[in-house]
Design a protein that fits this description.
One of its GO terms (biological process) is methylation. By secondary structure, the protein is of the alpha/beta class. It is built from 17 helices and 13 strands. Helices cover 44% and strands 16% of the residues. The strands form three sheets. It has a seven-stranded mixed sheet with strand order 9-8-7-10-11-13-12. The chain has a four-stranded mixed sheet with strand order 2-1-3-4. Strands 5-6 form a two-stranded antiparallel ribbon.
Length: 432
């Protein structure tokens, strides 16, 4: 077979009802598609079996993680071109291939059959080892949340050092005046501290403390006394060593603890940076109530969280299968309005919402560049499949932020004392 690419392109365009926006290079060395476009490299016909068995994002993701599919050329451009197929068309979320699966048009059925013949006999191979197997039981129990966090974060601190760089901050940086990723992450941490109004001796609870970056910055630069909680043992080990190396063990305590089990309030301030995405809709009011109860009157919460766009029919919202199976098991994104409303229902006074969507696209591109630069070492430190997961997830996320499919916001909320002022400066955007 020396024309697999042409046959594959023809069949794909028949299914899509539109020209394929990328070039195809097949396992037999043949190529077809628009000249000069990024090239989707199909290294093995097994990839087609995966797509036919699970049409849409999950089938393609399995082929990518297994190394059966790759992109030659600009990965971001390829993802942007493919976004209309796998993300949105006509304002409704759909997969073109999944839509065809149930089509009655004989021409489309014939195209699907052609792909089946080209790909070889079903069923496909087993999913890659990096995929989370199907979970059972209620969402967001403490046990299930701990397992989900371990899947994402306990993949090796060496790997995260290569991707995140010296800052070891795994959330959106703030590119106000910064020229490097490290400067932008430092500026983000400082922005959070200023919004919280931290001063010498304040008690800060850092929920989802990661590798200790926020805790170190708040203690070293502002004199805060910090308690950081995480469900990742690898993060806790790393953070404790880092704190000891900084000589800050008298100011910072790191615990492997669920935020629902924190009982030693009140705190003057709480930072939650990139953690609330793990909480889930069924637990979000509990999360808001818990943080409210842990603050002193007048205490501030800085909630830094990714948000999705609202759906016309919220009951139709579905978690992205690739993200759920390979990246953030049980993670859920909520619209900004729902998050603000839930915080207010819990008793918080929301004082500021700061949208920094464009900053996350730039941050993710910096992480992808770090990963690609250190690719052999990164793959050795975890697995080649997991490195491919992170490359696809971060690049696709960058495109999502840049296309305004998702955003990220810093919400400053106060446990108001009941009367009088909130303590937040009138010219709050100065954050002095």
């Amino acid at each position: 077979m020396a024309d697999a690419a042409l046959r594959l392109t023809t069949l794909a365009e028949e299914l899509l009802g539109a020209p394929l926006p990328v070039r195809i290079r097949a396992w037999d060395g043949s190529e077809a598609g628009p000249p000069g476009a990024p090239t989707l490299v199909v290294r093995h016909r097994r990839a087609l079996r995966r797509l036919l068995w699970r049409p849409g994002e999950l089938g393609l993701a399995r082929a990518w993680v297994a190394g059966e599919v790759d992109v030659d050329g600009d990965l971001y451009e390829a993802l942007d071109l493919l976004a209309g197929i796998f993300w949105e068309r006509g304002g409704e979320r759909r997969s073109a291939v999944r839509a065809v699966r149930a089509a009655r048009d004989p021409r489309l059925r014939a195209a699907a059959l052609g792909l089946l013949k080209l790909g070889g006999p079903l069923p496909p191979p087993a999913p890659p080892a990096e995929e989370v197997r199907r979970r059972t039981g209620p969402l967001h129990t403490k046990r299930r949340d701990k397992e989900a966090i371990s899947h994402h974060y306990d993949v090796g601190n060496d790997f995260y050092e290569l991707v995140l760089g010296p800052s070891m901050v795994y959330s959106c940086a703030y590119w106000d005046e910064a020229g490097t990723l490290e400067e932008a992450q430092r500026d983000k941490l400082d922005l959070v501290c200023r919004k919280l109004g931290l001063k010498e001796g304040d008690r800060l609870l850092d929920v989802g403390c990661g590798w200790g970056s926020m805790a170190v910055h708040a203690a070293r630069e502002y004199g805060a006394r910090v308690t950081g909680v995480t469900l990742s043992r690898e993060q806790a080990v790393y953070a404790r060593k880092r704190i000891a190396d900084e000589g800050l063990t008298d100011r910072i305590e790191i615990r492997v603890q669920d935020y629902r089990d924190v009982r030693d309030g009140p705190y003057d301030a709480i930072s939650s940076i990139g953690m609330a995405e793990h909480v889930g809709r069924v637990r979000y009011r509990e999360y808001a109530d818990q943080l409210f109860s842990l603050l002193v009157p007048g205490g501030r919460l800085l909630n830094h969280q990714i948000a999705r766009r609202p759906e016309r029919n919220e009951s139709a919202y579905r978690v992205d299968e690739f993200i759920d199976r390979y990246v953030f098991p049980d993670g859920e994104l909520a619209p900004l309005g729902r998050t603000v409303a839930t915080l207010e229902d819990a008793g918080f006074e929301v004082r500021d919402v700061h949208a920094i969507r464009e900053h996350y696209g730039r941050t993710l591109r910096a992480w992808v560049a770090n990963l690609e630069k250190a690719w052999p070492e990164a793959a050795r430190s975890t697995s080649a499949g997991r490195a491919r997961v992170w490359r696809l997830y971060m690049a696709a996320s960058a495109v999502s932020f840049e296309r305004n499919r998702i955003g990220v916001n810093q919400i400053l909320a106060v446990r108001s004392p009941g009367s009088g002022g909130s303590g937040v400066p009138l010219r709050s955007r100065d954050w002095r």
